[in-house]
Amino acid sequence: MAYNLLKGKRGIIFGALDENSIAWKVAIKAKEEGGEFVLSNSPIALRKKDIFELGKKTNSQIIAADVTEISELEDLFDESIKILGGKLDFILHSVGMSPNVRKDIPYSELNYDYLMKTLDVSAISLHKILSVALKMDAINEWGSVVTLSYIASQRVFSSYSDMSHAKAMLESIVKQFGYHYGVRKKVRINAVSQSPTRTTAGAGVSGFNAFYNYADAMSPLGNADSNSCANVCIFLFSDLSKQITMQTVYNDGGFSSMGISNKLIQQYIDGDCKE
Ligand code: NAI
Q1: Is 2 inside any structural domain?
Q2: What is the tally of structural domains in the chain?
Q3: Which of 30, 66, 83, 180 lies at a 20 to 30 A Cα distance from 159?
Q4: Closest residue by CA, ligand 1 atom 7
C-alpha cells in the first residue's frame, strides 16, 4: 500500500547494484510513494548493468559517480538538479566496501592502504556528499539524508574487521554533520542500522550465514529484511519524521537490545548435554 509520502520530492539514491541491494528496494518504494530521483553508482558497478533495469522500472536516469571523488559528486548534483527540475529533498547513501574484508585479511594484520580505502568509500564518502551538497546548496530545507549502518559500529562482530571502524565513523559523521547541516539549512541526517541481509556487500563478510542465523535466533521479531529497511528509509525521507535527526535507528527485529534468547539458550544447553 502506498501513501504518497514522497509526492513532489526529488532525490538521489546511491548504491543499487542488483535486485538484492537495499538501495534497489528503497528505489522501488520511493517511486511507489511518488518520489522522483536519480540513481547513482560507481562506473565499475554500472558495468553490471542491472541498474538500467531499475532505471526503467522507476523511470529514473542513471549517473555514474565514484563517491570518493569530489568532482564527480559535484557533476552528479549539478546534473541531478537539472534532470529533476529543482533542488533535492532526499538522499540515500547505501554504499560500503572493504578491500581487507574482500581479501580476507586477518584483522590484526590489516593492510593500511586498504583501511584508508574502506574508510573513504564506506564513511568519508558521506561527509563528501554532504559537504558538496552544502556548498552547492543542493538540498531543500527539511530535506533528509539517510545512510546504512550495522551494529558492529558499537560491538565486536569478529569477522566484520575494518568495516566496524567505517561504521563507527559513519555514525559519528551522521551526528556531527547532522548538527552543522541542521543549524544552517534544517537538513536532517540519520542512519538505519540494519539486520544482516543477503546482498553482495553482506555476503562478502566471512561467516555471513552465522551472522544471519545468530541474529535471527536472537531477535524477538527475527531479522528485518531489506523491504522493511526500505520502509524505514521512506519514513525518514518523509515529512512524518521531520524532527528526527542525528540518530541511528535500529531496524533489527530487537537484536540490539538482546543478551540471549530462549532459542539460543536451548541450543547451548543441548550443546552442553552432547559433550
Ligand atoms: P550492495 O553490495 O548491494 O551495495 C553496496 C553498494 O556500494 C554497491 O552498489 C556498490 O557498487 C557501492 N559502491 C562501492 N564502492 C563504491 C564507490 N566507490 N562509489 C559508489 N558506489 C560504491 O550491498 P548492501 O547490503 O545493499 O549495502 C548497502 C549498505 O548497507 C552498505 O553500507 C552496507 O554496509 C549496509 N548494510 C548492509 C547489511 C547487510 O547485511 N547486507 C547490514 C547492515 C548495513
Answers
A1: no
A2: 1
A3: 66
A4: 95
